[in-house]
C-alpha cells in the first residue's frame, strides 16, 4: 500500500504582535513605525528597536490589511506593453519608481498585451490601485478612465501626446522630436527630407507622432517630407540605400540614433556622401553617436517638471476630485554635428 508523501509543516507567519513583544512596545507603535507614520512622535531608539525586531523575525506588513484599514491601497499601477525604449524613457521610469517608493507607494507593473483598451482598464481596476500611470503607446479611453475612478483610483495619469477626458495628462509629445529634427535640417538648407518609419510594431506610436512633427516643421517652408519604412537590420538598410538616388532626398531624420547609425553606414557603403549628398540626424543624443565619423547630429530630449513626478502624483492622490491638470514634460533641442 503506497503512502502519501508527508506534507510540510505549516510555516508560522510572524505577526505585528510578535514584533511588539520582541521590541517591548505596543502593536500600535509597530504599525506607526513600519508604515512610516509621521503624525505620531516616536523616538529614534524605539524606531530602531522595532525595525530590528521585524528584521529578526522576518515580519512583513500585510499590504491588503493595511489597505482595508486605510480605505485605499498604496499601489500605483504602471501598465506595460510594447513601449518604445530609449535612454530618456528608461531614466524617466526609474526616477518615477524610485520616487514613489520613497513616498511609501508600491509600484506594480501590469502586462496589458492582448487586451483591448477597456479590457485593460477593467483588469487594472480589479487590483484597486490608488493611482494608474499610463505610458505612451498604451491606449486609455474616457470609459476606461471612468472604470478606474469608480473602482477607487484617486489619480489616473496619461503620458501620451493626446489628452484623455477625465484623466490628468503629463505629456511627452513626440511631435516635438520630429519638428526639432526637420527645423534643424531646413536651417542647414535641406528641403527634401526623408523620415525613417521603423517597421517594428512597438515603435509605431512614436514613429507616427514624430512624422507628424516633422511635417509640421516642414510646412512653413514648403519642404518635402517623405516617409521611409525601415526594418532594424542591415539588409533593410542596404535595400533603402540602393534606391536612394531615385528618391531625390538631400536629408533624413532617422527616427533615433540607432536607426541613424544603421542607415548612415548603408548610405556610405552605397556611395552616398554624408553630409555632402545627404544630411543625417537622429534622436536620443547617445554617446556612440558622438564617436562616429562623421559625428552624428541628433535631437536631445530632456524632462521639464516644476517638481519631481512622484511628488506630483502624490499631490494628485492627496487632493482628488479637482479638474484634470496637464503638464508638458518634454523639451527638445537639435545638436549640430558633422553628419548634417
UniProtKB/TrEMBL annotation:
InterPro entries: HTH_LacI, LacI/GalR-like_sensor, Lambda_DNA-bd_dom_sf, Peripla_BP_I. SUPFAM superfamilies: lambda repressor-like DNA-binding domains (SSF47413), Periplasmic binding protein-like I (SSF53822). The keyword Cytoplasm does not apply. Residues 14-70 form the HTH lacI-type domain. PROSITE patterns: HTH_LACI_2. SMART domains: HTH_LACI. Pfam families: LacI (PF00356), Peripla_BP_3 (PF13377). The keyword Transcription applies. One of its GO terms (molecular function) is DNA binding. Transmembrane segments: none annotated. Keywords: DNA-binding, Transcription, Transcription regulation. It comes from the Bacteria. This is LacI family DNA-binding transcriptional regulator.
Amino acid at each position: 500500500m503506497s503512502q502519501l508523501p508527508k506534507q510540510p509543516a505549516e510555516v508560522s507567519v510572524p505577526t505585528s504582535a510578535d514584533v511588539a513583544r520582541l521590541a517591548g512596545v505596543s502593536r500600535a507603535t509597530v504599525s506607526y513605525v513600519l508604515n512610516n507614520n509621521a503624525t505620531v512622535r516616536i523616538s529614534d531608539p524605539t524606531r530602531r528597536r522595532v525595525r530590528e525586531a521585524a528584521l529578526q523575525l522576518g515580519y512583513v506588513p500585510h499590504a491588503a490589511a493595511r489597505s482595508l484599514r486605510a480605505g485605499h491601497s498604496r499601489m500605483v499601477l504602471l501598465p506595460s506593453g510594447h513601449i518604445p525604449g530609449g535612454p530618456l524613457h528608461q531614466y524617466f521610469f526609474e526616477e518615477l519608481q524610485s520616487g514613489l517608493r520613497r513616498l511609501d507607494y508600491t509600484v506594480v507593473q501590469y502586462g496589458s498585451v492582448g487586451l483591448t483598451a477597456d479590457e485593460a482598464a477593467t483588469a487594472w481596476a480589479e487590483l484597486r490601485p490608488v493611482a494608474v500611470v499610463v505610458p505612451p503607446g498604451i491606449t486609455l479611453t474616457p470609459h476606461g478612465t471612468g472604470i478606474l475612478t469608480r473602482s477607487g483610483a484617486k489619480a489616473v495619469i496619461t503620458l501620451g501626446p493626446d489628452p484623455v477626458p477625465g484623466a490628468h495628462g503629463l505629456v511627452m509629445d513626440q511631435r516635438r522630436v520630429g519638428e526639432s529634427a526637420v527645423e534643424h535640417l531646413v536651417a542647414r538648407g535641406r528641403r527634401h527630407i526623408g523620415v525613417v518609419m521603423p517597421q517594428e510594431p512597438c515603435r509605431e506610436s512614436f514613429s507616427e507622432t514624430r512624422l507628424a512633427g516633422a511635417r509640421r516643421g516642414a510646412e512653413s517652408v514648403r519642404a518635402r517630407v517623405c516617409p521611409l519604412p525601415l526594418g532594424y537590420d542591415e539588409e533593410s538598410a542596404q535595400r533603402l540605400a540602393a534606391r536612394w538616388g531615385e528618391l531625390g532626398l538631400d536629408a533624413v531624420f532617422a527616427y533615433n540614433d540607432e536607426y541613424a547609425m544603421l542607415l548612415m553606414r548603408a548610405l556610405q557603403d552605397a556611395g552616398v556622401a554624408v553630409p555632402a549628398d545627404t544630411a543625417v540626424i537622429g534622436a536620443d543624443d547617445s554617446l556612440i553617436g558622438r564617436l562616429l565619423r562623421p559625428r552624428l547630429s541628433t535631437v536631445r530630449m530632456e524632462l521639464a517638471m516644476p517638481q519631481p513626478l512622484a511628488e506630483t502624483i502624490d499631490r494628485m492622490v492627496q487632493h482628488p476630485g479637482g479638474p484634470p491638470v496637464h503638464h508638458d514634460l518634454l523639451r527638445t533641442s537639435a545638436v549640430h554635428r558633422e553628419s548634417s
